[in-house]
Amino acid sequence: xxxxxxxxxxxxxxxxxxxxxxxxxxxxxxxxxxxxxxxxxxxxxxxxxxxxxxxxxxxxxxxxxxxxxxxxxxxxxxxxxxxxxxxxxxxxxxxxxxxxxxxxxxxxxxxxxxxxxxxxxxxxxxxxxxxxxxxxxxxxxxxxxxxxxxxxxxxxxxxxxxxxxxxxxxxxxxxxxxxxxxxxxxx
Length: 187
Hints:
Shape: globular
CATH superfamily of the domain at 13-131: Gcn5-related N-acetyltransferase (GNAT)
Structural class: alpha+beta
Order of helices and strands: EEHHHEEEHEHEEH
Largest sheet: 8 strands, mixed
Oligomer: single chain
Distance between the termini: 18 Å
CATH architecture of the domain at 13-131: 3-Layer(aba) Sandwich
Helix content: 25-40%
CATH class of the domain at 13-131: Alpha Beta
């Protein structure tokens, strides 16, 4: 049964509670900048200050990069943009990419939105882009991040020791991956 998406803003992939849509740099750059400057999110994703101008430039550049696909994560109930999800470093020859998700609205952390967005992006990566391997990396302290990855089917491959410097301390990074054959077994 096809659901009515006429009230959604440019829906690309529709899920149970969320839909993924293209970001509009002029419209979404302020929210993007706010998330990237948030201390909780900055701890895991970015150490650089982001102004609205820089945020718009960053989003514009990501859309120009053919090795990067980025979506906004929006709530179906009110069309509110609550996060970002993407595939980066897409390697066409090896059919691989690196996945990331950010739920920028802290009030929605721990409610399964990251897991739902992850599953939608995996379906897109494996079934529409024909990727064979999708990997992701989470700082050891980002328990919510790696738990969401595990719920979505990613397998822990190992830990890269003291890979990332944040706030004067080196942090270990957990590497996860999922293969298309493993993904297809879950359908």
